[in-house]
Amino acid sequence: MKDQIDEQALLKGLAISDKKAVETIYQENFNMVQSLIINNNGSSDDAKDVFQEAMIVLYEKARSGTFELNCQIKTFVYSVARRLWLKRLQQQNRFSATSDNLENLIPVENELEEHEKVNVEFELMEKALNNLGEPCKSLLEAYYLQKQNMHVIAANFGYTNADNAKNQKYKCLMRLKKIFFTDYKNGNDDGGY
To answer: Could you tell me the domains of the chain?
Structure first.
């Protein structure tokens, strides 16, 4: 119930161009729209444009005085951004579906749920990585994020050869998985995922 009240307050704030309401809606929704656009053949500039357009739609609806939001703001913004992006892709011939087929895509709620699940998993993975400790954290980052090969890692971390570095990477990865899945299990006992 409190969330609904907060959402209504945000909409009223948006309707009168309240800076705090606009910033809150931006902070709570931009990353979600950016992920949608970038994961579907777009750039961060495209994401900014589409998000601005979606905000204008929401702003105009809020100002109308007759708009009744029957979902969360993030669902509305995501849905509008998704439609705008699909329309733009169609215009650029980067998406081959006809407008009839657009309605048959995954429902927004399912897509949004999946996006939120992935965000939770990324947060848990980041937490697990931070709890991993050194040198494991740095070793895994060197291999997976910086794409260094085992010879470079062996030299940088003082292992006698690439095979020893590879064995250590495997042990670190197993420790990371154990931490992650312990957090994942404990963090999702609410019946969520």
So the answer is: 2-105 (1.10.1740), 109-187 (1.10.10)
